[in-house]
Amino acid sequence: MAVGTLALFYPVFLPMSAAAAVYAGHRALHVDWRMLLTQFLTGPGRTSRILLAFFLVLNWKSLPLAWTVRVFHSFIYHALRRSKTLPQRALFHYSVTSSRTSLLETDYNIHKSNSTYFADLDVSRSHLVTHLLAPGMPILGDNAKNKRVLDKEGNVVQGSFGIGLGAVFCSFRKEIGPLQGYEMWSRILSWDRKWLYLVTHFVVKGKVRPTAWDRKRMGPTRDRVQKADGSGETVDFGQYVIATAISKYVFKLGRFTVHPALVIEAAGLLPERPGEGWKGGETGTGTPEDLGDLVEDEQGQWDWKRVEVERRKGLQYAEHFAALDGTNSLFDGGEDGAIGSFPLG
Question: PANTHER family recorded for this chain (predicted)?
Answer without folding.
Answer: PROTEIN THEM6, PTHR12475
